[in-house]
Amino acid sequence: MGDLFMYLKYLQIVNYKNLKSVRFNFSQGANTIIGENDCGKSNAVNALRILLDDSYYYNSKKLKDSDFSYDLGEWRGHWIIISAVFVDITTKDKQNEVCAEIVPEQENENFLKSYINSSNQDIGVVTLFIRPQKAIRKKLYEAKSKAEFDEHIKLVKLSDYEFFYTSRSQSDFTDPEVYKSIVGDFELGNYCNPDDDDAAVLGSKLNIADVQEHISVMFVDALRDVANEMRKPRNPIRRIVEAVEAQIDPTDIEKIKEKISELNLSISEVEQIGQIGEQINSKLMDMIGMVYSPEIALESQLNDELNALSRYLSIKPSNQNDIELLGLGHLNMIYMALKLVEYKFNRTRELINIMIIEEPEAHIHTHIQKTLFDNLKLTKDYTQVIMTTHSAHLSEVSEISKINVVKTIGNVSHVMHPILNLDQFGDEKLELKNLKLSDCIERYLDAKRSVLLFSKGVLLVEGDGEEILIPNMVKIGLGVTLDELGIGLINVGSTVFEYIACLFDNDRIQRHCSIITDRDIQAVEVSSSFYSENAEIRGGSRQAKLNRLFENNPWVSTFYAENTFEVEFAKSNDNLTFISGIIDINYSDAATIQRHKKALKGTDQERANTVLTLAKSVGKGWYATLLASKIDESVQIPPYILSAIAFACQEVITTDIKFKMVSYSLSAYGVSNDEMLSIMKGAVSVEEKEQAISRFCETYPSDIVSLFLEKMDNLYLG
């Protein structure tokens, strides 16, 4: 095991903007916060900067009512809490007085085991409570009734709030019961007595400036004015020179001082410069006379101290005259490189360096993004990187163990950790021996992780046929794409479903995942070459295993074809026309074509045998591709697949999406129902659209869209 380096492990945020109660989980090296626009990525970054960044000026005078959780309704009296937990604090770190101040004197073993998942790590905690001042809290506590409490709450102003920093707290503030224990119960009108503040929960009062002096936070904004930053007195170049000055040979410094002295003399001896001094003297004598006028000379006095000279050092591209001619992306990367060098030279002074990079995709080319992120992973010895992104390209190179996924529901965002307790699941449920499930998934997901991380719901399939045909059936049959439904589709191939599906869980990714698989009940006669008793046995075992693993998981559900996907598709008479077209393409012998078409209209066993023969003849993937080119609006999506789609998209389906489906399907009926068309055309409000949708489903109950919406309704009804 390598050397330990102190790093930010957890960031708790309570009641800040759309982050009502979340915990971010970080590791050494390069971390990623992933989520769609406006999900709260920037809010998380701002919260961290409020707590630790001395260049981010934020205090009670800047506090706004919009800074409180959007879900609170009434913000008055509530607290905003931002708490950072640092781990891997070494004995050497604790020799620093500031570090020693944030390390708990007596560690709470229960907190360490449940929150840090370890009882032998040295931790440090810094917390900010944005809360009403004590006098205000006292008034709220002394309220004799709920009515009196509500009256006092109405009088609370933003100017009544204080910023209270503490260290050594060992509390999970995202736990609603912990929040109630330190703030109060607003529904009952009970506020906590400020005289009873518990230091074991809140921590000990802290001078945050002392901490910020030894924790370096650098923020790279997508629109950062790097050229202007480089002109500031305390730019990275100057700080690097300060750090290395002691290492410069004194002889070299003396040579520089001699040259500066010579330069000063040369400038002062320029005739025109001397004349300026003479003219100033002349004007002074004219103004106040020779007795009172001081004798002055205009001289060059360039400072010969190396620190002062560093302000004249600048970066110049080899093929440009000025750094400002470079693009925004290159400027930001140069700035990051400078900061990393600065961190390296200042490691003895800083406890920890945190670099925050906001949405690099805004100004850095895709390939450079990947290279940048890969190389930032190598900085873990002295810099922790936190990058926010909604780029699928960056997600592909992010380690899934170092990803926080932000998901928004209404006004509230939730933070998900894809591998939380995943290895425990592998040990206990999958009985993996000497194998870490998280490592296996990390390697497997290299090309698929963006689907998992950015989709609102996921379909897991095991064959090329499903992967090819399902998106086409949805688009042509329902009039929307899987993308519009927020659904990502992953073909797991030969990988067993449970290894991927277990990512979806209350502990990990809280998104709906549908497993689509076959029970493989034999649809052909025993005499058929396609008959396989073993396949049926395996199908039953698969069903039993998946049901056992996920029966209590609200985020995963399994949907089974009784036989196989190809056979299920052929069970609808409407789909036989499309299969018949494939027969015409694949066979040239008239008798063979006639025999197969006759079998399609024969018994279930005859139909299944012909479909399986056809799929085997052309290959299942190509068979699905040919079908995708043949199907039209009359296509019937097998019921189990329709149910799987409904389950996966239940969080994102909206009235507008349903209305679009109905409008699309209605157009296939032409003008045969003028009344229905009139209702649809007149529907403007959400209520009117819902009524039109209901009317359509009543009028066309067997339509594929009606069947799909019925399955959606059944989900909502439970």
Automatic annotation (TrEMBL):
The record's section on PANTHER family has: ATP/GTP PHOSPHATASE, ATP_GTP PHOSPHATASE
Q: Name the InterPro entries on file.
A: AAA_GajA/Old/RecF-like (IPR041685), Bact_Antivir_Def_Nuclease (IPR051396), P-loop_NTPase (IPR027417), TOPRIM_OLD (IPR034139)
For this protein, the record's CDD domains field holds: TOPRIM_OLD
Question: Quick check: keyword Kinase in the entry?
Answer: no
Sections of the chain in a coiled coil: none
Q: Tell whether Hydrolase is among the UniProt keywords.
A: yes
Q: Which UniProt keywords apply?
A: Endonuclease, Hydrolase, Nuclease
Q: Tell me where in this chain the Endonuclease GajA/Old nuclease/RecF-like AAA domain is found.
A: 6-394
Q: Name one GO molecular function term.
A: endonuclease activity
Q: Where is each OLD protein-like TOPRIM domain found?
A: 453-520
Protein's name according to its UniProt entry: ATP-dependent endonuclease
